[in-house]
């Protein structure tokens, strides 16, 4: 069991929790976190369609956070059961889909600002 890998997996889970937290804040309290939900260059006060953005972004960011939580937990599980081969395969597959999905999400969000 590699402690560095476990720390990295815990940080991945924490990142997923943060994304879900800010997605919920966006939906419930109309707080759009700059730097997490939108790039720092975007002025959230001057968005073209704020409600449309929230409707579009919430389920996608919630799913992103959930994927990160599952990825981190799978990584911790693979470390506990000494399966580095499975750990690497899962990371490569999930992160590839995560990055491709994130590119599509960012492209779709641009029509709202």
Task: Give the SSE layout.
Blueprint: H1 3-29, H2 50-80, H3 84-109
Transmembrane segments: 6-23, 62-82, 88-105
Protein name: SdpI/YhfL protein family protein
Keywords: Membrane, Transmembrane, Transmembrane helix
Short description:
The protein is an all-alpha fold and 113 residues long. It has 3 helices and no strands. Helix 1 (3-29) packs antiparallel against helix 2 (50-80) and helix 2 (50-80) packs antiparallel against helix 3.
Structural class: mainly alpha
Number of strands: 0
Helical proportion, percent range: over 70%
Q: Which oligomerization state do the chains in this entry correspond to?
A: single chain
Instruction: List the uncertain runs.
Output: none
Fraction in beta strands: under 5%
Gap between N and C termini, in Å? 45 Å
Write up what this structure looks like:
- By secondary structure, the chain is mainly alpha-helical.
- The chain has one domain (3-112).
- Helix content is 74%, strand content 0%.
- The chain has three helices and no strands.
- It has helices at 3-29, 50-80, 84-109.
- Helix 1 packs antiparallel against helix 2 (50-80) and helix 2 runs antiparallel to helix 3.
- The longest helix has 31 residues, at 50-80.
- The radius of gyration is 16 Å and the shape is elongated.
- 18% of the residues are buried.
- The mean pLDDT is 87.
């Amino acid at each position: 069991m590699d402690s560095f890998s476990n720390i990295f997996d815990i940080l991945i889970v924490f990142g997923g929790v943060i994304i879900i937290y800010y997605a919920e804040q966006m939906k419930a309290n109309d707080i759009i976190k700059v730097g997490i939900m939108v790039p720092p260059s975007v002025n959230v006060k001057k968005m073209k369609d704020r409600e449309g953005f929230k409707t579009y972004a919430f389920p996608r960011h919630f799913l992103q956070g959930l994927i990160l939580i599952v990825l981190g937990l799978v990584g911790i599980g693979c470390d506990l059961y000494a399966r580095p081969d499975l750990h690497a395969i899962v990371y490569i597959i999930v992160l590839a889909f995560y990055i491709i999905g994130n590119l599509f999400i960012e492209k779709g969000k641009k029509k709202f600002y």
